[in-house]
Specification:
- The strands form 2 sheets. Strands 1-4-7-2 form a 4-stranded antiparallel beta sheet.
- With 143 residues, the chain is an alpha+beta fold.
- It starts with 20 loop residues before the first strand and ends in an 8-residue tail after the last helix.
- It is built from 2 helices and 7 strands.
- The protein has a single domain, classed as ADP-ribosylation fold, CATH 3.20.170.40.
């Protein structure tokens, strides 16, 4: 797709977006369970999330899992949105035109339909630097 062809994903036109979709976390969740909004952020316990976030890029979900708070192991779940969704405004158009990370959010639950056993990992130094930035309050792209 050429940059000039980019169309923002909104709740009204999300039906054309193809999955599969992924959600990264350290929580141990059951297949068949639902991810719902209204809980604290995976990255900042002071923030209650109004949306559930997900991506069509497994590596991106893996990054979210690596960055998540908690003692569990990083997990990437395969999810299906149960309702309308939109581009994640925290990343859309922030550094690149459009939504190259294919990141989305929804107020509706995401149904867990599977778990990835492996995904492409980021460099460990990149993860450490990103964690430092989040701790310093500079990691807005993560929330």
């Amino acid at each position: 797709m050429h940059d000039d062809d980019w169309v923002p994903v909104s709740r009204e036109n999300c039906n054309w977006v193809d999955g599969p979709f992924y959600h990264g976390t350290k929580a141990d969740l059951p297949v068949g369970g639902l991810l719902i909004a209204g809980f604290t952020s995976n990255y900042d316990e002071r923030v209650v999330m109004n949306h559930v976030y997900f991506t069509a890029v497994s590596k991106g979900a893996g990054l979210a899992a690596e960055m998540a708070r908690g003692a569990g192991r990083p997990r990437v779940y395969v999810v299906v949105p149960t309702g309308a969704f939109e581009d994640d405004p925290n990343v859309t158009n922030k550094k690149f035109r459009g939504n190259p990370t294919r990141s989305y959010r929804s107020v509706s639950p995401l149904k867990i339909v599977g778990e990835l056993e492996s995904w492409e990992l980021y460099d460990a130094e990149f993860i450490r630097e990103l964690r430092r930035r989040v701790e310093d309050g500079l990691g807005e792209i993560i929330n």
